[in-house]
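User: I'm preparing a small set of examples for a lab meeting where we compare how different chains pack in three dimensions. I only have the primary sequence for this one, and I'd like the structure in token form so I can line it up with the others. Please keep the answer compact; I'll paste it straight into my notes.
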Amino acid sequence: MTRHTAMAATVAMLWALALPAFAQATRGAQPKAAPAAASGAKVYAERYAALCAACHGADGRSEMQGVPSLAGQHSLYAITQLFLFREGRRANEAMTAVAKTMKDEDLRGFSDFIATLPALAPAAAAAPPDAARMARGQALAQENRCVICHGADLSGGQQVPRIAHQREEYLALTLQEFRSGKRPGYTQAMGEAVGRMAPEDLDTLAYYVARFPTAPPKPGGK
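Assistant: Understood. Below is the structure token output for the 222-residue chain.
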């Protein structure tokens, strides 16, 4: 079985895991399920605070070097990553140790809670962004089709992560790992996109995405 065949099988299993929550979201919440849903949300909010917040932040904004922010991430993306950690398909000692203790309902509970963490504005910068680097980063995002999958506002969707305002050093490391093949992708898209980019361009792209403008200026400065 090739890596991409294995990833396709993984995606199929994840859809089976996520399907109950996804189906309920698409047909609307049922009144009878509301108390149980509220109870479950409270349980996972408490478990997140006890287990995840120390590294990822109580509001989903990480203040720890190399640890991603979770605010604004999508439930299906979150459950995918937790599943990959649990099954040993992503390598991170701390996350693997945590995920291995999770049952399927825990994967769903944590991912659904993570999806309730609202996206945050970028952290206040000590100095204005470098205009030339930002322009180059924007060009790289367009040239390498980042906006096709991650969206014009880089907010992602479904199994595609929100990357706007993610920690810069985490973005740079992730891009490097996709380029080297260390980090698996669902398809070949990420490897192909970054495989043709120079290392310095990966750093510039990470710089731009971390500082993605929340309200780009209109043409002519109006």
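A couple of notes for your slides: The CA atoms of residues 131 and 151 lie 22 Å apart. The longest helix spans residues 3-27.

User: Perfect, thanks.
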